[in-house]
From TrEMBL, chains A, B, C, D, E, F, G, H, I, J, K, L, M, N:
NCBIfam families: alt_F1F0_F0_C, ATP_synt_c, PRK13468.1. The gene is atpE. It comes from the Bacteria. This is ATP synthase subunit c. The keyword Nucleus does not apply. Its main location: membrane. F(1)F(0) ATP synthase produces ATP from ADP in the presence of a proton or sodium gradient. F-type ATPases consist of two structural domains, F(1) containing the extramembraneous catalytic core and F(0) containing the membrane proton channel, linked together by a central stalk and a peripheral stalk. During catalysis, ATP synthesis in the catalytic domain of F(1) is coupled via a rotary mechanism of the central stalk subunits to proton translocation. It comes from Alkalibacter rhizosphaerae. One of its GO terms (cellular component) is plasma membrane.
Length: 88, 88, 88, 88, 88, 88, 88, 88, 88, 88, 88, 88, 88, 88
């Protein structure tokens, strides 16, 4: 196997696994936060505005970890410095 | 094995595993959120509108992680830059 | 092993594993949602319409992740671009 | 090992594993849903019709993921495009 | 190893593992459902008929996933198309 | 290793593992069901007949998955079609 | 390694692992059932006869799965058809 | 490696692993049963005789699975038919 | 494989895995903290300011561990001292 | 590697692993039983004699599984029949 | 592979894995502590100062374990004694 | 590798792993017992003598399993019969 | 690979893994202790001094296990006797 | 690889892993015990002396298992009999 094949193969594998593994925890964490938001709204409807606002800030923080993974995954596919080096 | 075979084989493996692994957590997280929404509606029927709206925003956030994986999976199958490089 | 054998073998393996792994979480998530729907109906029979409607929307969202996997699995079996390339 | 042996061996392995792995989650999810249905009937006997109807819809949704796996498994055994290609 | 040995060996392995793995979840799911049925009967003896009927429908649904595995296992042992092909 | 050794070795391995793995879930599921039956009898002694009857039907269903595995295990040891083919 | 060594080695390995793995679940299931029986007797001493009887029937059912494994294990050590074939 | 070494090495490995793995579940199951017995005695001191008797029967049943493993382990060390065959 | 290929391949693999694994725990920990904040707001609306402030400090602490991983990942992709050494 | 080295190496490995693995469950089971005994004494001080007696019988039963492992471990180190055979 | 490649490759792998694995537990532990702080503030708002102070001391202790890992990771990347030795 | 190296290497590995694995369960079991003792003392201060005495007996029993592992570990390092045989 | 490379590579790997694995449990244990301290302060504010003091003693004990790992890790990087021996 | 390299490499690996694995359980067990001590002090402040004393005895017992591992680890690094033998 020459360098191009190896670097290409590795980039494919890691691009996929990074987003696959990296999407596990955010989805579970967000499910947990959303579930609790719904429970809180049912319990204290008058505070639904505060609850929604806090929920959205929290979801944004949690989603950020998924986005870190997505960014790395996209860099590996379309702006991979090692691929550019071996292809050059 | 030549480069085309290796890159093709790797793309198939990762395309499948990415969506397979990536669909685990969203499905569980959404099940968790939906279950809690149903519990909240049963507990506070008057707030079913607020609960539904919050639920749908939450499901969209959670589903987004599954969609990241589906996008990477589709890119690997139909717009794979490494495949195009070796096939060229 | 020549290219045709390798690509064929890989497609079979991943087609099966994708739907096998991909069906784990939706089945558990749906079981969780259905179980909670039944509990909510028993608790608040008057809201069974709202509960059913929310349940069906939720099941559709959860089922969608299983369908992503089924789609990838079917593409690998019957519309596999890599197989078409090596068979050509 | 020639192509026919490899493709045949792979098809047997994946046909079995797909339905074996794919039957885990539906069985657990259905057990969960049925158990909750029985609890709900004991708690609210007057709603046993609504509960049964919702249960059967839910079981059908959950069973569908097991059937996806069974379909792939049967395709691999009796309508396998890769086997037909190498046997030809 | 010639083709006959490989296909035979693979069929034995998968026939056993399919039913072994495939019997895990139904047994646990049925145990869960039966346990809940007994709890419901103790709680609401007057509904034991409805509970039994729902239990048996549920057990049949759950058992079906074990039977899918048993069918695949039996096909691999006694009606294996790949074995017939290599033995011919 | 010749064919007879391979097929014999594989049959021994799978015969043992099938019943070993296949006995895990039934034992746990039956333990769960029996434990709940005892709890129900203590709670509602007057229904001990109904409880026992439902328990025995349930145990039979659960035991059936262990028996599927035992049957496959015995077939592999004493009525193995692949062994008969290579021994012939 | 000749056939006798391989078949002997395999029989030893599987005889041990079968009973080792096969004794995990019955011991846990029986511990669960016995613990619940003790709790039920403490709660409802007047029904200790019914509870004991149901417990012993249940323990016999659970023990049966351990005995299936012990039987296979003993067959592999002392009445192994494959060993007899290669030793002959 | 000659036959004697292989059979000896395998017997040592399996003799140790069988009792090591086989002692996990009985110890946990017995700990569970004893803990519950102590809780029941504290709750219902007048029934301590019935509780002790049921506990000892249960411990004997659970211990039996550990003893199956110990028996196989001892057979492998001191009455191993395969070792006797290769040593002869 | 020459040095450039090995160092490049390793950097890709670790850059992806570091952020993938490193995003698991922060997402779950943040989900946990957000869920509890929502529950606390519903329970004590008058303290929502103190709760929000404590939540944001906590999220920042938790997010910091994800950022450590992202930093290492970016260093490996774009400021890798070992890559610079071998490329030189 | 000659026979003496292999048998010696295997004996060391298994002697260590047997007691290491075999001490996991008894320690946890005994911790569980002791914890419950302390809870029972706090709840029913007048029965501390009966509780202690039952605890010690139970600890002896649980410890016995650790001792089985210790015995096998010591046999492998100091009375190993296979070592004696190859050393002879 | 020469020494420089091996030491470089190993340093990359371990630098990434150390911070990746080492950030799991602090994130979960901090999430746990923050969640409990929020619950305590909601329950006892008058003590929010004491709670915040104890929380920050605790977070610092927990964060220290993540920082140990980050330090080792940075040493491996930028002050690696083994790299300096082989590069010299 | 000659015999001395192999036996020495194996002894080091197993001496370390035995005490490492063997210290897991006692530490957890003792933590469990101590925690319960503290809870019992808080609940029933008048019985703190009986509780302490039972705790120390229990800790001694649990510690014994760690000591078995430490003994085997020390034997392997300083009184290893296999090392003495190959060194002789 | 010569001795220097092997010993260097091994030292890097173990230095990283030791602190990575060794920081898991202290972080979780400290999170657990801190969370409980906050709960106790909220419940019994008058005892916050005693609680803080006991917490800090406990945190020091728990942190000590992380420090053991950090010490070993630092010894392997900067005072490694085996490295000094091979470098000499 | 010569003997010195192998024994040195093995000693490094096991010295690190022993303390890394061996510190997991004590940290968790101590966290558990400390958490319970804080809960008991909050519940029964008058007994804080007895609780502290019992806690410290318990922590010493639990810490002892970590110290066994640290001792073995230090022996392997600085008083290793096998290293002394091969270095001699």
């Amino acid at each position: 196997m020459d360098s191009i094949t190896i670097i290409g193969m590795t980039s494919i594998i890691i691009a996929g696994l990074t987003i696959a593994i990296g999407s596990i925890a955010p989805a579970i964490g967000e499910g947990n936060a959303v579930a609790q938001a719904l429970r809180s709204i049912a319990q204290q409807p008058d505070e639904s505005n505060t609850i929604s606002r806090t929920l959205f800030v929290g979801l944004a923080m949690i989603e950020s970890t998924a986005i870190y993974c997505f960014v790395i995954s996209m860099i590996l596919l379309f702006a991979n410095p090692f691929w550019n080096a071996v292809i050059g």
